[in-house]
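Archive entry. Fields below.
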Amino acid sequence: MKKQTYSCGLDAAVDVVGGKWKALILWALHSGALRFGELSRNVSGISEKMLIQQLREMESYGLVHREVYHQVPPKVEYSLTEFGHSLNTALIPLGDWGELHMETIEALPRP
Amino acid sequence: MKKQTYSCGLDAAVDVVGGKWKALILWALHSGALRFGELSRNVSGISEKMLIQQLREMESYGLVHREVYHQVPPKVEYSLTEFGHSLNTALIPLGDWGELHMETIEALPRP
DNA sequence: TCAGGTACTAACCTTTTTGTAAGTATGGAG
DNA sequence: CTCCATACTTACAAAAAGGTTAGTACCTGA
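PREDICTED_STRUCTURE:
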């Protein structure tokens, strides 16, 4: 989130879901709530710091819900809100596109 | 483009269209070819450096086509390839989502 | 000969993002 | 007592992205 005004819907959406991890976290939560540790293992390559950072941000955006179970050892579950679900749905075609062109993409020249 | 392998289609797609500008440039080219200067005015807020940098990258990915007219003053037109079109199409739902929730997004808390 | 319009290019710097590694808090189990 | 699992937190560093400013090359027409 950097801007306050956007030139178009895509501009706004990219600002919300932008970055390396948010879309993947959303994706991982697609099929239901997950604990912090489960997410950590599910989203391959993410560090604990980035995960919590992104989760906090997405929570503040109203995309994910955080449920704390007062136990020891602690248990915290993250799940998608309605808003998060709607965004996830909007991302499906993009995911399909990536899937379809995966080989092409992997063969693309790197900087 | 940072990775060589992806955990899912969305992962790959985000890697291709990631960053602040690519989606917007794609969007701007939706309705047809544009010259460098036209793009510059069309994609609000972008600097010439970022524009050319992103265009070059997208050209190398096969998303946009660059057509040079040997004239003075110079004229260069950028347009979407088939690949670029397909990506643009996949971005439509995301754009719609952003449009639909624009007010909510603008009211989101900033860091 | 000199300004003008177009599409870049280059150097330098600042900001943002991401990564790494270590440390904290909790209460029950042994 | 000490260890364990879990969910963070902190401090620091590196890397990537983005921004600013000035400059180049080209022919044309005044």
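CURATOR_NOTE: Chain B has a mean pLDDT of 93.
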